[in-house]
Design a protein that fits this description.
mainly alpha, 4 helices
Amino acid sequence: MEQKQYDDPVKSPVVQEIILCNRIGAIAMCLAKRLGVEPLRALLLFYRSQTCRHLHDKRTGLYLYSDGYIADETMREFA
């Protein structure tokens, strides 16, 4: 199978997935601090949220917002 070449390596799906994974980790750390829970617990809460599903859906544009904003959205979802 031939792999597609990208003019900008950052546009590669593999690189995009790595960037998203790093963002999710940062969001989980924000949640952990705000909720006073362990980072792993915050990560699990985030992965179970509708906000996480929206972050993975490029059509929502949520990926354009800051990690803190996304953490706030997640907290509002569980309020």
